[in-house]
Amino acid sequence: MPELPEVETIVRGLQEKLRNLEISRVEVRHAKCIHGSAESLTASLKKKKIHHLERRGKYIVFRLSGRLALLVHLRMTGKLRFVPSLSPREKHTHVIFSFKGFPWQLRFVDPRKFGRFFVESKGIQEGLESLADLGPEPLEISAKAFIRRARSKRRAIKPLLLDQRFLAGVGNIYADEALHRAQIHPRQRAQSLGEEALLRLYWALRRILQEAIHAGGSSVRTYVDACGSAGSFQNRLRVYGREGQPCRVCGAEVVRERVGGRSSFFCRRCQSRK
């Protein structure tokens, strides 16, 4: 699933390309991608101009004229592709946006069909009710607030990092990498971690997310940006996806275990459970 760096990369790549374009037509080829009625969504988006794009957690938000916001969640395998209108359609192309007087299209491609689109009526600067339960952004929250929130929880630290109500946008890849850099075992209880350990985790998470954004994200499976380019941060991963390989720091074997129902990659030597 695309995480914060991948979604941020997509938003930045599409921002200038789509700004001020008017949606002339929306073709929905797979109605289950739409939350609610496909007919209602296509009617509400017609003739709307795109003011700007933004990211909130793992959501892409299109701020439109008429006090509308189009929200997109890519889920497991969703991709937004910005391509010439005459280019062949990829297999599993489910939604197509055409623009007035512009010979390119924005296409949503999703082999697993888990991605979702929905429209919410709000002003340009207003918050979105559908995203109200999301936690703070990991690149915006202060260290003090992060530590306070973490120490109030009794959960294991890895599942807590994946909880979008705790932090918005962090997924499996960057949670594993941040815990490794901070030398914290994924099963350690958040409440048991000292201030020094949580501060290490706070800064590790920020640095990794910033580095991954700069690298265009991690293309560990199907992820590409809107122009079809892969990210490169996967070449710098220390533990994620490296089961049985040597830790890049100490040389011990990277292991994989289920923690909170999710695969977790870590080094028992660097991340000893205290």
Provide key terms for this protein.
Helicase, Ruva Protein, domain 3; 4-stranded antiparallel sheet; 23% strand; 6 helices; 274 residues; N-terminal domain of MutM-like DNA repair proteins
What's the N-to-C terminus distance? 31 Å
Strand content: 15-25%
Work out the helix count: 6
Give the spatial strand order of the biggest sheet.
1-6-7-5
Query: Average pLDDT across residues?
Result: 94
Number of strands: 10
Instruction: Round the Cα radius of gyration to an integer and report it.
Output: 20 Å
CATH superfamily label of the largest domain = MutM-like, N-terminal
- How is the quaternary structure best described? single chain
- Kindly provide the name of the CATH class of the largest domain: Alpha Beta
Order of helices and strands: HEHEEEEEEEHHHHEE
Query: What's the story with the biggest beta sheet?
Result: 4 strands, antiparallel
Question: Fraction of residues in helices?
Answer: 10-25%
Shape: elongated
CATH architecture of the largest domain: Alpha-Beta Barrel
Query: How many domain units?
Result: 2
Tell me about this structure.
The protein has 274 residues and is α+β, with helices and mostly antiparallel strands. It has two domains: 4-131, N-terminal domain of MutM-like DNA repair proteins (Alpha-Beta Barrel), CATH 3.20.190; 143-267, Helicase, Ruva Protein, domain 3 (Orthogonal Bundle), CATH 1.10.8. It has helices at residues 4-18, 38-45, 143-151, 157-162, 172-181, 195-214; strands at 23-28, 50-56, 59-64, 68-73, 79-84, 93-99, 102-109, 116-121, 254-259, 262-267. The strands form three sheets. A four-stranded antiparallel β-sheet has the order 1-6-7-5. A four-stranded antiparallel β-sheet has the order 2-3-4-8, covered by helices on one side. Strand 2 (50-56) and strand 3 form a beta hairpin. Helix 3 crosses helix 6. The chain is elongated and about 60 Å long. It starts with a helix and ends in a 7-residue tail after the last strand. The mean pLDDT is 94.
